[in-house]
Amino acid sequence: MAAGQYPNETALADYRWHPDGFEVSEWTRLAKALAIALGLTLFLSMFNWFAFRSNAPWLFKGIVGLFDLIALGTWCQAAVQLGRAFKFGHFRIDFA
User: Fold this and answer.
1) Looking at the domain assignment, is residue 1 inside a domain?
2) Does a structural domain hold residue 85?
3) How far is Cα 56 from Cα 51, in angstroms, rounded to an integer?
4) What is the domain range of residue 32?
5) What residues contact residue 46 under an 8 Å CB cut-off, 6+ apart?
6) Of 13, 14, 28, 32, which sits most exposed with the smallest number of CB within 10 A?
7) Which of 77, 69, 83 lies closest to 37 in space, CA to CA?
8) DSSP for 4-17?
9) Axis crossing angle, helix 58-88 with helix 26-53, rounded to the nearest 10
């Protein structure tokens, strides 16, 4: 609606925003980070089961271990997002 009222104002055409302020929620970022970490962990679980339950070659175990480190990094990122969500939560910037 604002983009239609002010066609020469490109900032209004980007996304829905309120002229009186800007709202950001850290909880949605946390949900995305947890979904990515959980999905990657579930995906890698079958490779971990095969690599470490059977007599898989050491190269395969090494590659799976590398991807496990990447999954650990995604869990660490999710933990950082959790801390940010508890610290900042849902905040709003009011324009003058």
Assistant:
1) no
2) yes
3) 5
4) 25-91
5) none
6) 14
7) 77
8) HH-TT-GGGGSS--
9) 160
pLDDT for the residue 93: 76
In this structure, are residues 85 and 29 in contact, taking their beta carbons and an 8 Å threshold? yes
β partners of residue 21: 18, 94
Number of structural domains in the chain:
1
Query: Alpha-carbon distance 77 to 10, whole Å?
Result: 34
Kind plus residue range of the DSSP H or E element containing 25? strand 21-25
Amino acid found at 4: G
Per-residue pLDDT tens digits of the chain, which is 96 residues long: 766 787 777 666 666 666 677 677 888 889 999 999 999 999 999 999 999 888 889 999 999 999 999 999 999 999 999 999 998 888 777 776
Instruction: Look up residue 57 and give its two tokens.
Output: 């070659």
Give the residues across from 23 on adjacent strands: 92
